[in-house]
Amino acid sequence: MNSLSKLIGDENYSKLEELGNPHVMRIVERYVRLCKPAEVSVITDDPDEIAYVRELAIRNGEEMRLRMEGHTVHYDGYYDQARDKENTRVLLPPGMRVSPWIKTIDRDEGLREIHQLLDGAMRGKEMLVRFFCLGPRSSRFSICALQLTDSAYVAHSEDLLYRTGYEEFKRLRGSSAFFAFIHSAGELDERGCSKNIDKRRIYIDLIDGKVYSVNNQYAGNSLGLKKLALRLAVYKSHQEGWLAEHMLIMGVHPPGKGRVTYFTGAFPSACGKTSTAMLPGNTIVGDDIAYLRIDEEGNARAVNIECGIFGIIKDVNPVDDPVIYKALTTPKELIFSNVLVVDGVPYWLGMGRELPKRGINHSGEWWEGKLDEEGNPIPPAHPNARYTLRLRDLENVDPRLEDPEGVIVEGILFGGRDSDTNVPIYEAFNWGHGVYVGATIESETTPAALEKVGVREINPMAMLDFLVIPVGKYLSDYIEFGRRLKRVPRVYAINYFLKHEGRYLNDKLDKKVWILWAEGRIHDEYDALKTPVGYMPRYEDLNPLFREALNKDYRREDYELQFSLRIDRLLERMRRIEAFYGSEPDMPEEFWKIHNQIKADLKALREESGRSMVPPSYFE
Ligand code: OXD
Ligand code: MN
Predict the structure, then answer these.
(1) What distances in angstroms separate CA 215 from CA 79, 84, 197, one per listed residue?
(2) Catalytic amino acids?
(3) CATH assignment of 244-305+401-619, given 3.40.50.620, 3.30.70.1340, 2.60.40.420, 3.90.228.20?
(4) Nearest CA residue ID for atom 2, ligand 1
């Protein structure tokens, strides 16, 4: 009997052996020896084995059943409620460069530290060995992923969010072309939450295609396949000439026109990405991460590398997000995290009804007025509370979700949380300008990462946290990608958060109209107003869309206010863009050319119009 089969038992061993992949064997052996779990379970694609993981999460207390069939709740530790930017680091070998805001640690030093932390980290626990496929099965887009974890919640979440991949690993025929993720929640407290948060570390090894994550459970930190895999994919796609993006994919179905047009869209976390992907009347392919490649006819094609949603639940209510709300309140396999629970019923912020005054939440037993260690009031549910479910369990899932060829992308949306600068929507002049639009998304920070909320930051393609290659190179890749296309997607800047005198100028569902307008533009159905920043919609086109899509009156004065060019604000942003990108080497020349042109045009417009806020009628 060889040493690995002695270590993990014959049954587990033969499951691994069947893959015919010595790299998998080596990784499993190394981390079983290091992490020292009490038990190991190798899980294949067999539904019984997957059910075992789901049950294990209940048995070991990581999830509790809720009243509705299939629903469970999971809690992360009080200080482990979002992505930990500080302790997420790229292992940097000598001579390698990443974007300047990405945290790094010397590769050898980081490997030493993380392996010390992993030593014995799974003592008394069960290691789950899981195989997944990032992307549809049998697709040239897709990447195999191996996950080792001592958290059944992590493994269960990945079952909802990713395609099983044991059979896909066989198709690798022994190659090492897969990503590997090693996660341990570490020592747990009496609530089953990671205890040693001060030793939380998430280290990304780009060269080896591996990520190590320890002393955490929040999915954005622990689930290898989510944002950790995105960083590995960014590095790989840069080498190979495709794009790995923080993007939704949706099918837009204009009423009565009998066609579907696919869009992708990048928004920073908690800025409306999921609610866009779940807009009533349309179909969802994905809400978070897309891989884009060029097909033989020169189309941009996209696949969702996930098959589920890990969505923010705050403000999901029957009025603003009817489709999501319904999905959350009907029986299906679904994990809530960090919500308030009373009598087996989950509650969250902004759900459109009054919340109970006591219950269980991410702080344990909770009552109104409870303070945390720093003396801050604890809200009933965390603002970054989440739900995890499968796309195929939704009525609005797009039929092409599993298409190995992906969908043809005809439109791309770029948006941020911007209260005072951009109009609700405009179209870029061309691909290069579209890249500029994406590169200059500016957004106020949100509770999806552990940092100060509400700070304005430039967030290139909503990829700020994930850009493990130098941003100038990334933008050059983007421009080059467009150059290779025969059918170039139109690009839109979109903003749901514009305010006037402290009040939002749009209702949440107005986005339906913006997207229908963009879709119609792609099919040459609408003219537009040419402005220095791009093409803006005409009132004559939006008005009937508001009527048809929302049964709403759209007043000309509302249009005028929403679509006025705020020249001073735009110029202020341009200065922030200059500060952000100014010292960046490898920036594509085209970026600065476009930037300087827009700046000159805006200044000329201010001069010529004598105004700092120019209404859309000026461009008619
Ligand atoms: C997410 C995020 O969870 O971006 O999607 O934080
Ligand atoms: Mn995201």
Answers:
(1) 11, 11, 6
(2) 271
(3) 3.90.228.20
(4) 269
